[in-house]
Design brief:
The structure holds 2 protein chains of 2 kinds.
Chain A (H helix, E strand, L loop, with lengths): L1 H35 L18 H8 L5 H30 L7 H8 L1 H4 L2 H13 L5 H8 L11 H29 L3 H9 L4 H29 L3 H8 L12 H11 L3 H22 L1 H4 L3
Helix pairs in contact in A: 1-13, 2-13, 3-8, 3-10, 6-11, 8-10, 8-11, 12-13
Chain B lengths: L2 H35 L21 H9 L2 H32 L5 H11 L4 H12 L8 H26 L2 H9 L4 H12 L1 H17 L2 H6 L8 H8 L8 H21 L1 H14 L1
The chains are: A mainly alpha, B mainly alpha.
């Protein structure tokens, strides 16, 4: 009995440094944020804040023009659109890249991986300056050539949403193509041969062989991508929301919305409440999809 | 030649043209930056732009490498990355070994909790971490950032190495133990060499994370002497009004090159290391 206790202590001692760091940088911030979310801490009440109960949550969830619900809707729309386009485009491209007679497909694959390999923030800033900038961005140079008026691409809500979606698609597609490509290669060719003998056309083959075969293989990657898309911050923040260089677009994901309330308008209590709501949403989602398989290992 | 063969050849050519066009379109933002960085300042606003620089010059690179503080930022980033990677592995490997091999109360609960807690976005932790580090005087310091980065990547490092340790047969270790090896010796001499692929992938992911992280770096670091590459690049940014787009383009290329080299050298490991779980499922 005693040696068992010692063994337990020993295990905790070895895991201690790692658990301590996680405690400080992951667990503490969540608990502290939960605490602040119940107070009225803001720029006027930096030290003398008081507990206000659930006021911040009520403001976020039931006051419609607080902006949280519209940011949440925009984020859901953003995630759904991104996933739809990613899955369809990646599937088509990966299928084409799997045509055996295409001789340079290795080269194409390598080139198409570039957006993934580049540091994300660098790519986003290059898009911002090189493509969308109203003076020396490529888009406006092309508009000029076509005799059209130059536009401020990131200035209005809808066009900012589209621009951010395109950049996000550009960043995320390589990973999805690679996953799809791997999944397609794992399908046994003989299924297709017998289907061809039965006279099944491309659509039928895709529907009854390809999609069921790749679905379980790509599922984990798709779930991870849904998470990262829902939690996307960099694209929207760097393109439109940077402190001192706001473009005037009102498009927010829930993360940039929480960030703005904490660091721009310094409404810490309210921002913390939003953070906790986001956390609860994410936990509900990951408990449903991630935990079941990972917990068993 | 038969009609069918012609048709096949035609569609293959069309496919090749499509992929060449697609590859080019994908690279446009990068190619444009490369071209601008190699171009003389004055030709920038002319509308007849081409992807081949007209006034070829290396002036922008010279300005980046010698004019700005980029060498200081590079040094800061390398130190930060090296210490973070070392510290991450030093805390993750023993912990992962315990969670993989030993059974103790709370083990499963902790593992499950870590997955859930890790879904809290790092950006949202920033305010709390600021309040935590400030009284300790760690806000505008390297030590503070190292703690933040190691802590943020700790759950990933732990899970990733633990997952690989699980696949190593216990029998190998038992043989060594019979010969009188201590725990430390077993981990360092036997488990670590066998787990090299996952340790390399973990180290690379931490390295790339530190290299690419900008939001903590720009918020916590003040004073150009302390900047990392990401924070420095952020400051160099060309906005609608200020800054030099060619110099910024050159700096972007310089900053990206190391990551590109690492990525394409290790692409095989990275993709297999990241998708191993997916293929199994």
């Amino acid at each position: 009995m005693k040696s068992r206790k010692r063994a337990t202590l020993y295990s905790y001692a070895w895991s201690g440094p790692s658990l301590l760091l996680i405690g400080l940088m992951v667990v503490f911030p969540i608990l502290y944020t939960a605490y602040i979310s119940l107070t009225n801490m803001n720029v006027y009440h930096w030290f003398d804040f008081t507990i206000v109960g659930l006021d911040n949550y009520i403001r976020a969830l039931f006051v419609f023009d607080s902006g949280f619900l519209s940011a949440l809707l925009a984020t859901i729309l953003w995630t759904a659109m991104s996933m739809l386009f990613q899955l369809v485009i990646a599937f088509v491209l990966a299928s084409l890249l799997n045509i055996q007679k295409l001789r340079f497909r290795k080269l194409y694959k390598t080139v198409l991986m570039f957006p993934w390999a580049m540091p994300g923030y660098v790519s986003i800033l290059l898009w911002k300056t090189g493509i969308f900038n109203s003076q020396f961005g490529l888009l406006n140079q092309w508009m000029e050539k076509l005799g059209l008026a130059a536009a401020r691409w990131l200035a209005s809500d809808v066009s900012a949403f589209i621009c951010c979606s395109i950049v996000n698609l550009w960043l995320a597609l390589p990973f999805m193509i690679m996953i799809m490509d791997g999944a397609l290669q794992s399908i046994d060719r003989s299924y297709y041969e017998s289907a061809l003998l039965d006279g099944a056309n491309w659509l039928e083959r895709t529907r009854s062989i390809t999609v069921p075969a790749i679905r379980p293989i790509i599922a984990p990657a798709v779930i991870i991508t849904i998470f990262t898309t829902f939690k996307q911050f960099d694209v929207v923040y760097l393109l439109t929301q940077q402190a001192g260089a706001k473009t005037g677009s009102g498009f927010h994901t829930i993360l940039t919305y929480a960030y703005e309330n904490a660091f721009i308008t310094n409404n810490y209590g309210y921002s913390s409440a939003i953070s906790i709501i986001i956390f609860v949403l994410l936990i509900a989602f990951s408990a449903r999809y991630q935990l079941r398989e990972e917990g068993d290992r | 030649m038969s009609k069918k063969k012609w048709k096949e050849r035609l569609s293959l050519t069309a496919l090749n043209v499509f992929f060449i066009a697609l590859c080019f379109a994908t690279l446009i933002p990068i190619l444009y930056a490369v071209s601008v960085s190699l171009n003389g300042q004055n030709s920038l606003l002319s509308s007849d732009f081409s992807f081949i620089p007209k006034n070829f010059t290396l002036d922008n690179y010279r300005a980046v490498l010698f004019g700005e503080d980029i060498m200081t930022w590079f040094k800061n980033t390398v130190i930060l990355a090296a210490v973070t990677v070392t510290l991450s592995l030093a805390v993750a490997v023993p912990a992962a070994y315990c969670f993989s091999r030993r059974r103790f109360p709370g083990r499963r609960a902790i593992l499950k909790c870590l997955v859930l807690l890790n879904s809290f976005p790092a950006v949202l932790s920033m305010f709390a971490i600021y309040r935590l580090l400030r009284p300790m005087g760690l806000v505008n310091s390297r030590v503070g950032l190292i703690l933040v980065y190691t802590g943020t990547m700790a759950v990933f490092s732990l899970w990733n190495t633990k997952g690989y340790f699980d696949t190593i047969p216990v029998e190998i270790e038992e043989a060594a133990r019979m010969d009188g090896a201590s725990d430390m010796q077993v981990v360092v001499r036997i488990v670590m060499p066998l787990a090299k692929p996952s340790i390399v992938v973990t180290a690379l992911m931490v390295l790339i994370y530190v290299w690419n992280e900008y939001i903590y770096a720009t918020t916590f670091l003040t004073g150009e002497a302390n900047y990392t590459l990401a924070a420095g690049l952020n400051a160099l940014q060309a906005t609608e009004m200020t800054g030099s787009w060619p110099v910024f383009a050159a700096a972007s290329i310089v900053v990206s090159l190391p990551v590109l080299v690492i990525f394409f050298l290790c692409q095989k490991h990275m993709t297999s290391g990241l998708t191993a779980g997916g293929v199994k499922g």
